[in-house]
Design a protein that fits this description.
The complex is a heterodimer of chains A (591) and B (381). Chain A contains 26 helices and no strands. Chain A has 591 residues and is an all-alpha fold. In chain A, helix 1 crosses helix 14. Chain A is globular. Chain B is an alpha/beta fold and 381 residues long. In chain B, helix 2 links the parallel strand 1 and strand 2. Chain B is globular. Chain B starts with a helix and ends with a helix. The N terminus and C terminus of chain B are likely disordered. Classes of the chains: A mainly alpha (591), B alpha/beta (381). At the A-B interface, helix 3, helix 9, helix 10, helix 11 and helix 12 of A face helix 1, strand 1, helix 2, strand 2 and helix 3 of B.
């Protein structure tokens, strides 16, 4: 990796993620902090809670794989009408936040759910959504497996596997697949060519599900599942108010996630698709795909239809005559501003994520960066509340003039870090010092001009910074995949004939990256739109978000109104997707 | 050069997004239910012409989100007024020196038990900890009369209570510790556990499950009961410890306070005066949350009992707030035994972690075997 690329990576990740987290660990040097951390660790059954978290994440990933992989293969390899529409439909579960999935499933298989009642009548025994498979006290294996939260999280996140596999299918070598089909038929091509070649993408999706399941708080909170993330949240919010203790308790989750990412990177390094990209279809003629269609519909009905159906049933009928105010009308009148707020924050987040992921993805694609990527993606396992608090704390203190200089020194050190590992070619010590000095000077100017105060108290910058800290590793990874699939000779040729960096980006790289940019934007959209905990901590006074409104309404409003709002959120959030689906040319290959 | 420009674009975006307008305004953080508090704050805007910029908490974070935010912003406060829906977290803020004393003229009629002696915070519109019961499953005469009764054998497997780890349930149990002492409260909790109490994740679920008939009664807040009453469920409210020499019902007021270093102090005082007025207490009483007025002469609906007509538990909120972090930790240790809604005995944490590591290794091994170089070579050839 070039020194410039390395600097880009460390600077972006440093400002949005490393520096805020460093601020959390700085809490360790405060008086009495070490004793607090020690107490927090001793009181928590870290081993047991970590085991529960790992089991939960592992089985969630496995179930998501079992749901998402067949779906992607049916959609990506079939040649029947409606598959493009159904591929877009697969994104919908991601637009329903995990806490809504939980509420919806509770109405089905909870204590008084319709399926639970039927099950109790038929089998004479009650379904226990919250309980473990075995005796949680004595059975060290089955007692640590919680099928309820596992299934709900798998239903929430399986589209990540589907989307990742669909991206893999698009980048397949059409020649190799055709050869495989000639020698081994459809099944042979699938078994010996397609599956091995898309394996890294399958694993990427599963790994992402694994990491998100490690850190998803609302599901385990609502179902009372004892996991490490629940303990981290408790430590952060209620017990000590000490983010250093929470950060220390959250470290095992980051380490587990990091190990998974490193393993994934090694596998990816072994299997890299190459050759000619093209449209790969295993069904020769159009039509005749009704069995595939039926299978996709059944899968979607199971994972999306049941929770949405239970919400629709709770919300009651839509009154089209206008004689009565139904739940939908009653709710929408109260939350229209929240929709505006959500969309503004989401689109700002998407834009910022795309702009930051572009140079980062390119830098990662040039060579390696496994360590940076592992730390980045591993940070997804941290509770969003912790990242929110750290970001808020850092910028508030910077605005208060407390840590500006320290902050700048650490940022400069981060910038210099790459030079410690590999001396940048053509960059002397004096130049490096001048660069670091210029950065400090820039920071002092920012401080003197009151910019940090502006960033802290106005606009939606804090929310955008938190979105960057949380989701940049995901979108950067998708961009990296796009850059890797590009022929570097084309970019080199453009450079040789005199195209500058910006020109190369616009005229050479962007036209070849439409699929990756579109997929990154899509992912950024669903992640930002459904984000709740960190937004709560950083949202500007006076602004609203629909996710916040849903949570508030859960307390006092009737379940019918809450369900109506959930349905509205899914429908409204799907509008931009529908627009992109209709307007985006097929050659962009977003899905 | 152009490449560097591209890389600096995110910075420009960050600076560009930081645009805001200045006018006469007050910033309020509100942990009371948004559906009802928004109407009241809009009324304030209409009457004073002062723009109220609002940030709300969620039920899930139980006021902790905003408290955490206020502590994080202490170096450079953004918030002027904090309207908290309880008093425990308020005391945490007072202890940290984050509150500006202000005695509102409208606080005069509020009982001394519900305000800070130094004026750091003032209570208004309260909730009470009550027993919710299902009229179709238990008779009124059979209901427990005191908190101690809840642990009686005749109520085995009949009661629901939220885990006392957050929100008003935590504050309630912390208050019991301050009144009953360590030994008696611990013994009471042990008897509750042995009595088959179902420990829920919040007061809302407790009231809902009683309304649905999962169990005949539960300990919850008045607002949660009122919502189910308005939705037509067959539930009733019982105030515990009202007899002669009884402990009294635990009442949790909303609290309002001005933050130290508030950017708009004059507007903040106006908002506090407005919120503490008897008229606002009347509006809160009429809402779905049915907040109980602390001012003695507020006209409230029939189903809302004014605090003046209730025997209340004598609690030093300062002491409760000071001890609440320790209580939360101790209670978490105790309630870690409740897993997935069931009481669990025994600890197999280390063994379970070993199983988890084995499962991860097996998963990795499976992936390696599936993608071992031989297969990859076959695929490439």
């Amino acid at each position: 990796m070039t020194w410039k690329a390395r600097c880009t990576l460390t600077l972006i990740l440093g400002i949005v993620l490393a520096v805020p987290l460093w601020r959390a660990f700085l809490g360790l040097v405060e008086p009495g902090a070490m004793a607090t951390v020690q107490d927090a660790v001793e009181r928590a059954d870290v081993a047991g809670l970590l085991a529960n978290s790992v089991f939960l994440a592992l089985f969630t990933a496995v179930i998501a794989l079992l749901l998402g992989l067949p779906l992607a293969l049916l959609l990506g390899l079939g040649n029947w009408r409606g598959r493009r529409f159904l591929a877009w439909l697969c994104v919908l579960p991601l637009l329903i936040p995990p806490h809504i999935h939980t509420i919806a499933w509770t109405r089905v298989v909870g204590d008084q759910g319709w399926f639970s009642n039927w099950y109790a009548e038929v089998f004479g025994t009650a379904l226990k959504l919250r309980a473990s498979l075995g005796d949680a006290g004595t059975d060290a294996f089955l007692g640590r497996i919680y099928p309820g939260p596992t299934w709900i999280m798998a239903c929430s996140y399986f589209p990540l596997v589907t989307l990742s596999v669909l991206a893999g299918l698009r980048s397949l070598d059409a020649g190799a697949v055709e050869a495989g089909r000639l020698f081994g038929g459809r099944r042979g091509a699938l078994r010996s060519v397609i599956l091995p070649l898309i394996a890294p993408r399958v694993l990427t999706g599963a790994a992402l599900v694994f990491i998100l399941a490690l850190s998803t708080y609302p599901v385990v909170s609502l179902l009372d599942t004892p996991t490490l993330i629940q303990r981290v949240f408790f430590t952060l919010s209620q017990a000590y108010g000490n983010q250093a203790a929470a950060a220390v308790l959250g470290l095992p989750l980051v380490i587990v996630a990091g190990i998974v990412i490193i393993g994934l990177a090694r596998i990816e390094a072994k299997v890299t698709p190459g050759g000619t990209q093209g449209s790969v279809r295993l069904t020769a003629e159009k039509g005749g795909g009704w069995m595939s269609l039926a299978a996709v519909v059944v899968l979607l009905a199971l994972t999306l239809g049941i929770p949405l159906g239970s919400l629709v049933a709770e919300a009651g009928p839509l009154d089209l005559t206008g004689e009565h105010v139904d739940n939908y009308q009653s709710v929408f009148q109260r939350v229209d501003r929240a929709f505006v707020g959500s969309f503004v924050m989401t689109f700002a987040g998407v834009l910022a994520l795309l702009l930051a992921s572009w140079p980062m993805g390119r830098a990662l694609a040039r060579r390696g960066g496994t360590a940076v990527e592992s730390v980045g993606l591993g940070s997804l396992a941290l509770p969003p509340e912790l990242i929110g608090v750290c970001t808020l704390l850092l910028w508030s203190q910077a605005a208060g003039g407390e840590v500006t200089l320290l902050f700048l020194v650490v940022t400069a050190a981060l910038l210099a870090l790459p030079a410690l590992f590999r001396r940048p070619r053509g960059l002397g010590l004096a130049t490096w010092g001048a660069l670091a000095g210029a950065l400090v000077a820039l920071g002092l100017w920012l401080h003197a001009s009151d910019t940090t105060r502006t960033i802290q108290s106005t606009g939606i910058t804090m929310v955008v910074l938190v979105y960057l800290a949380r989701f940049l590793p995901v979108t950067a990874r998708m961009m990296r995949n796009g850059f890797q699939a590009m022929d570097p000779a084309e970019v080199d040729a453009a450079r040789m004939v005199g195209h500058g960096g910006l020109s190369r980006s616009f005229h050479i790289e962007l036209p070849r990256m439409t699929g990756a940019v579109g997929a990154s934007a899509l992912m950024a959209y669903v992640l930002c739109f459904t984000e709740l905990p960190a937004t709560l901590l950083t949202i500007r006074p006076g602004w609203q978000s629909v996710q916040l409104r849903i949570f508030n309404m859960v307390h006092y409003q009737s379940i019918g109104e809450v369900a109506a709002l959930c349905i509205l959120v899914v429908l409204v959030a799907a509008v931009p997707l529908i627009i992109v689906m209709v307007l985006a040319p097929r050659r962009w290959n977003i899905l | 050069m152009q490449g560097r420009f591209t890389q600096l674009l995110p910075l420009f975006l960050v600076l560009g997004l930081s645009v805001g307008a200045q006018d006469r305004r007050v910033v309020a953080y509100v942990s009371h239910d948004e559906e009802h508090s928004r109407e009241i704050l809009e009324l304030f805007e209409k009457e004073t012409g002062i723009k109220a910029a609002l940030t709300f908490d969620t039920e899930d974070t139980k006021t902790v989100g905003l408290t955490k935010r206020l502590i994080s912003e202490a170096s450079r406060p953004v918030c002027d007024v904090f309207w908290n829906n309880e008093a425990g977290q308020t005391e945490r803020l007072r202890e940290r020196g984050l509150l500006e004393p202000y005695v509102s003229p409208n606080a005069a009629g509020i009982p001394a038990a519900f305000k800070d002696p130094a004026g750091h915070w003032t209570g208004f519109g309260a909730r009470a900890r009550v027993l919710v019961w299902n009229r179709e499953q238990i008779l009124e005469d059979e209901l427990p009369k005191t908190m101690e009764d809840l642990a009686a054998p005749r109520f085995k497997d009949k009661l629901l209570i939220a885990k006392p780890l957050t929100g008003t349930t935590l504050t309630h149990v912390a208050a019991l510790y301050s009144v009953w002492g360590e030994e008696r409260t611990n013994a009471w909790l042990d008897r509750l556990m042995a009595n088959g109490v179902s420990w829920e994740m919040g007061n809302g679920p407790v009231a809902q499950k009683v309304a649905d008939g999962v169990r005949p009664m539960g300990l919850t807040d008045t607002d949660d009961v009122n919502v189910r009453l308005l939705d037509g469920h067959p539930v009733g409210t019982a105030y515990l410890d009202q007899g002669e020499g009884g402990l009294g019902t635990f009442v949790i007021p909303n609290t309002v306070m001005i933050m130290k270093g508030a950017p708009n102090p004059a507007e903040a005082r106006l908002l506090v005066d407005f919120l503490l007025s008897p008229r606002v207490e009347g509006l809160l009483a009429k809402g779905r949350a049915a907040q109980m007025p602390l001012h003695p002469d507020v006209a409230a609906p029939e189903h809302v009992l004014p605090v003046s007509r209730l025997k209340t538990m004598d609690v030093d909120f300062g002491a409760v707030g000071a001890a609440i972090e320790k209580r939360a930790l101790d209670l978490n240790d105790r309630f870690a035994r409740i897993q997935g809604g069931e009481l669990v005995d025994g600890d197999k944490g280390s063994m379970a972690l070993l199983w988890a590591v084995v499962a991860l290794v097996l998963a990795g091994l499976f992936v390696y075997l599936a993608l071992r170089p031989g297969r990859e070579g076959a695929a490439r050839s």
